[in-house]
Design a protein that fits this description.
two-stranded parallel sheet, alpha+beta, 435 residues
Length: 435
Amino acid sequence: MIGKKILFIGCSILMTLLTTQAQVNENKQEKLSLSLAQAKEYAISYNRKIQTSNLAIQKANQAKWQALSSMLPHVNASAGYTNFLGYEMALDLGGGSAMDRVTALVDTLYKTHGITMPASSTSSSSASKIPMNPYGDFTAQATIGISGVQVVATQLSKTAIAMSETNKSISELDVKANVVNTYYSVLIAEESKRIIEKSKENVTKLYESTNNLYKVGMAEQTDVDLLSVQLGIIENSIRFSERNIELAYNSMRLILGSDSAEIELTQTLDDFIGQNEPFTTIVSPFVVEQNYNVQLLNQNIELSKKQVSMRKWEYGPTLSAFYQYTTKTYFGKSEGFNMTPPNTVGATLSIPIFSSGERLSKVRQAKFDLQTAELNKEDAIEGLLVQEKQLRFNLKSAIETYQVQKKNVELYEHIFEKTSEKYRLGTISSTELTT
């Protein structure tokens, strides 16, 4: 008995530990170790802007099926109940021979439906009474209609899908560019912090050695104070760099669509500095028609052309047809007077004739929109060509500046070492060293 209790208590403790560990694992932040290529792929999968673009494509596909379904049969059904509360319809044609003929006709109708003619209807009275009995009815109707406007609307929906896909490509390109810029920003911020920390290390050594010299009377208090101020400035720069690093990582989380993830970048600046991609970009040709914005403008022109066609088709006819089935059920009484046919088929050809210039105005407006779209494309292409030349110039200047600055860094490090040695030997002042 005691052994069973111990076993039960042990199992309870084990379950508690497992539950606690599961909660800890659940609350533990996700850690992402990403190269630049992996960061791009992750952003494409989880970025909210890309998800919005995917929803736009799905919406455009549904709009296409909506346009197609307008040309397919539509079926509707209805059921109802009608009760005239004992009312009888009176048919009065003034009596005489004409009334006799009507009475004979009504009698024939009743016999056709297997109903006994009411006594009041066969009398010589000038008014015939026709009972209006309660009934239930069911009606099913199938309709179909087609016009040139509907056909063009289907073509418009296909163009809208293509535009949504192009917009998604533009969004993906923007997201990738943001990932690259943010990735580099993080690496640059971390490298800047590393350089400043190295400077702090050098200045700290100088401060300690100068302070020791001051204690033995070989340096002045001003020298110690100047190095102390310089050390404080460097420490403040380090804190500023840390805030920049955190800001860059937060921007990366926002682009990746993972707000709480811990991010680790697996590549360094050295992995990218030696690549020849910038030099390849400078000499590569620019094909303006491959630009996504130009493709979107082309699709917008195509959309405007379809709009012109749609407005012109408003002059065309519309053909519609229907089939209707109706059945009635009389509740416990004779059918009475029923002139509703069970099956009905019909067709209509609607031809627009005169609209006081309304349709013509719509056509002209659509043509103006087409001309505007074409002008927008020409303007955008000119702007892209100018921007392409400027970006090539900026890239070339950036490469040259980087090469010069790289040599300057090496030169400044050499100058700093020599100056520090001179300061230790007492040949220059602390002010010259700080400068």
